[in-house]
Design brief:
The complex is a heterodimer of chains A (about 190) and B (about 250). With about 190 residues, chain A is mainly β. Chain A has a single domain (about 15-180), classed as Sandwich (Protocatechuate 3,4-Dioxygenase, subunit A). In chain A, about 5% of the residues lie in helices and about 30% in strands. Chain A has 2 helices and 11 strands; from the N terminus they run ββαββββββαβββ. Chain A has helices at about 80, 150-155, and strands spanning about 40-50, 60-65, 90-95, 100-105, 110, 120, 120-130, 135-140, 165-170, 175-180, 190-194. In chain A, the strands form 2 sheets. In chain A, strands 3-2-7-8-9-10-1-4 form an 8-stranded mixed β-sheet, with no helix packed on it. A two-stranded antiparallel ribbon of chain A has the order 5-6. Chain A is globular. Chain B is mainly beta. Helix content of chain B is about 5%, strand content about 20%. The chains are: A mainly beta (about 190), B mainly beta (about 250). At the A-B interface, β5, β7, β8, α2 and β11 of A face β1, α1, β3, β4 and β9 of B.
Chain lengths: ~190, ~250
């Protein structure tokens, strides 16, 4: 195929402050599981801060992840490999007045990555908001996971910034994992060019 | 095999490798930190994005909203007892990937202001009137050939606090999923001849002029319905794969 024949992808624009109307008022997904979904049930709490550490209370956060066995919905081998029918890999929520939203999900399994190596369990995250012209993509990994040490994607991230991608388990409630996403500033989260 | 029969499942080649998606020329996408749009200053990363080679995480994506869309969702003028005020329009077009393959059965989410430039939303404090017959939210699925069409009213211009005398050009927000995480797109459709486009930093944040102009719909006489509604045509292009399994 000749490269000059490619169409130019439509430009992104901000969701603006009123996206709730079209996206989350009636079509939010905060719970990706039911009682019988396989895997370790967790709550992922995301908190979004701007460059002044002010909570971003008008954002939309979307997540996309594999099931507990590491299979994505829609993957070629899904039927043979048995993607969990009781799990929905997609979630999205508006942030609240504290810049926070919480997804009820499961801890994903390891998925195949670069050159056949397995990727550490992770959740793919998109951030949309007023002031964000191109959606921001990041990943949430799980602190303390031994597979993090050998994950290819984490190895691309400077050591000093890897902790911006790690959700931390709540001491009081071990099913609760928390991550703070810093849009900019000293603790700016690592964002990916996907 | 015909291109339009390809679904979500072709994420790997026969040898099991993931088929990556092309990356757009950055000049065809907005500059994330665009100081004329003030909200970007506190909400844009300053450090370079880290290039992510595509894995299953990026080339798979949610099938969202299929089977949850009915005809009333795609006619924003028929969601209440009466007709909304304003200029009735029909917006139609096709969704493509950048290889020129149509994207069938994909969801488009729609939201917009009413004809007076007011959103039906708690946060909107613009003094223009709400319209009891217009909520300004809809949804539509593309058909087998990637075509979509929805009916609405032309939104009004809308003032915002970005700078002195700042007004957004009339626009409709559109949100699409495609079939892969990397294809997710939220954009805005504008109207031809709008004098506010020249002053709008959200529109102007796209460096490449032809890419910018592609966000402006074309007035379309063939889809205009006599005694009923004006037609506008707007095609949407999502990212495509570097090579499909069939082309290898």
């Amino acid at each position: 195929m000749k490269s000059e024949e490619h169409l130019i992808p439509t430009a992104s624009q901000t969701v603006g402050p009123f996206f709730h109307l079209g996206c989350t008022d009636h079509r939010s997904v905060g719970c990706l599981t039911d009682a019988n979904t396989a895997g370790e049930h967790i709550t992922l709490v995301c908190r979004l801060l701007d460059g002044d550490d002010t909570p971003v209370n008008d954002a939309m956060i979307e997540i996309w992840q594999a099931d507990s066995a590491g299979h994505y919905d829609g993957e070629q081998s899904a039927q043979e490999s048995g993607t969990d029918p009781r799990f929905r890999g997609f979630g999205r929520l508006a942030t609240d007045e504290n810049g926070t939203c919480a997804f009820k999900t499961i801890k994903p399994g390891a998925t195949p990555g670069i050159n056949g190596a397995m990727q550490a369990p992770h959740i793919n995250v998109s951030v949309f908001a007023r002031g964000i012209l191109n959606r921001l993509c990041t990943r949430v990994y799980f602190a303390g996971e031994s597979a993090n040490e050998t994950d290819h994607v984490l190895s691309f991230v400077p050591k000093g910034r890897r902790n911006t991608l790690l959700a931390v388990r709540d001491v009081a409630d071990p099913s609760r994992w928390q991550i703070t996403i810093h849009l900019c500033g000293e603790y700016e989260t690592v964002f990916f060019d996907v | 095999m015909a291109a339009h029969t390809k679904g979500n499942s072709d994420v790997r080649t026969q040898s099991g490798e993931v088929v990556p998606f092309r990356r757009p020329d950055p000049s065809t996408q907005p500059t994330s930190l665009y100081e004329q749009y003030r909200a970007t200053v506190r909400r844009s990363p300053r450090r370079p994005l880290i290039l992510l080679p595509h894995t299953l995480s990026e080339v798979t994506g949610p099938i969202f909203g299929r089977g949850e869309v009915d005809a009333a969702d795609s006619d924003l003028t028929r969601q209440h007892n009466g007709e909304p005020l304003g200029e009735r329009i029909i917006v139609s077009g096709r969704v493509w990937d950048d290889s020129g393959h149509p994207v069938p059965h994909t969801l488009i989410e729609i939201w917009q202001a009413n004809a007076a430039g007011r959103y039906c939303h708690d946060v909107d404090r613009h003094g223009a009137p709400l319209d009891p017959n217009f909520s300004g939210a809809g949804r539509v699925l593309t058909d087998d050939s990637g075509q979509y069409s929805f009916v609405t009213i032309k939104p009004g211009a809308y003032p915002w606090g970005n700078h002195f005398n700042a007004w957004r050009p009339a626009h409709i927000h559109l949100s699409l999923f495609g079939t892969a995480f990397v294809q997710r797109l939220v954009t805005q459709m504008y109207f031809p001849g709008d004098p506010l486009l020249a002053f709008d930093p959200i529109y102007q944040s796209i460096p490449d002029e032809p890419a910018r102009k592609r966000l402006i719909a074309n007035f379309d006489l063939p889809s205009t319905k006599p005694e009923w509604a004006l037609g506008y045509h707007f095609d949407i292009v999502l990212r495509g794969r570097e090579a499909t399994p069939f082309e290898k």
